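[job 4471] stage=fold_predict status=RUNNING
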Amino acid sequence: MAVNHYFQGGRGIGNDSEKRLHEDIIIESLKIFGQDIYYLPRTLVNRDLVLGEDTSSRFDDSYLLEMYFETTEGFAGENEIINKFGLEIRDDTTLVLSKRRFEDHVSSKATLTASGRPNEGDIVFVPLLNSYFEIQFVEDQEPFYQLGNLPVYKLKVTRWEYASEQINTGNELLDQVEDKYTLDQLQHKLTLEYGQEVLTGAGSIMLEDYHDYSTGQPALLMQETFVAANIQTQSPYASNLDLNAEAGYDTASTADDILDFTERNPFGEVDE
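[job 4471] inference complete, writing structure tokens
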């Protein structure tokens, strides 16, 4: 035979066992020299079939895997650059991940957009850097067929720019990004003292936190006994009432107002 059948195309201790041993050595190396990194698959919520993107995607699950930084001397890419939009951080790197470990711990459990492999658009969280990175490209043929096998994925990632996506993995370390930086208005709703939302309930407006921990009482934003007239008081640091008085807006008559909207516009209206 032209090739050694104990390593390629053989039976028994040949091809399959040598592939398995090769993968075991790679996995052991990743566990020794790699980092604990969380893999978060993206869930599409409202996909735009024209542009092929989803502006309201979410991340509901996380999977802890060992990965190795291939760029050991620092981040690749353009790093920190100044452009017409301001400071932009482009930290790129390559993460090496075992195919078998991904299949056992992610692919068999998660719902992936493209099943069976890491997906472009998914994100990873690196606790060492306390940062998220987005997968830009997945290289699955490097190194090229050693022992007739493709044992690893190489994830080309760049630093992720958060845009109010929902992160609800149940892991406080991962979810704190949404809690801190989200601009989603639905994350800041007010509830009434009866536990209802403002638009459907009745009573005092209660903060979402629900309790004032210093007193143990419900944390109310506005009491039922609130009198609207009490708001017509001027703070020592403000001059709103003084300005209203000078403009003539503190009286019912419009004769002393600075702006008199009863006058006709001689350039835009025609007298009949």
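[job 4471] summary: The chain has two domains: 15-181, 189-272.
[job 4471] exit 0
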